[in-house]
Amino acid sequence: MYYVNQEQIERRLNAIPEVADGLRTVQASWDNGLIAGMVQERALHLAIEIVTDVGSYLIDGFIMRDASSYEDIIDIVHQENVFPKEIHEVLLELVKLRKPLVQEYYEWDRHALHPLSRVLPETLEQFAVAVRDYLAKEL
Question: Which of 51, 67, 109, 110 is the most buried (most CB within 10 A)?
Fold first, then answer.
């Protein structure tokens, strides 16, 4: 029997609506300003942390192969059929932003709306549904 920390997964999935709302608000009122840019930056960062944390909990709980990178977390969870290809493509693009956001933040363009900000809210919501469906099916 697997031990999947459903409580911690759910806590992270429950953060998705606020992140999605933040991205939708920023997109709808984009003004190229610093504050909007910083809200977008933080929302993207939180989205990365949510999907990689949830992926790591799934990998550990279901004893999937070990991940070697953030991209690998997304690939492994996708290969285990937690979510479909469309979500995989967006999340893979998302996690590639971690290094620029966290390590090279001084170069991040805070005055441009990132293309992921348009599609990510819906993708995150679909991710949450897919993860919950996977857990219901597997447990």
Answer: 51
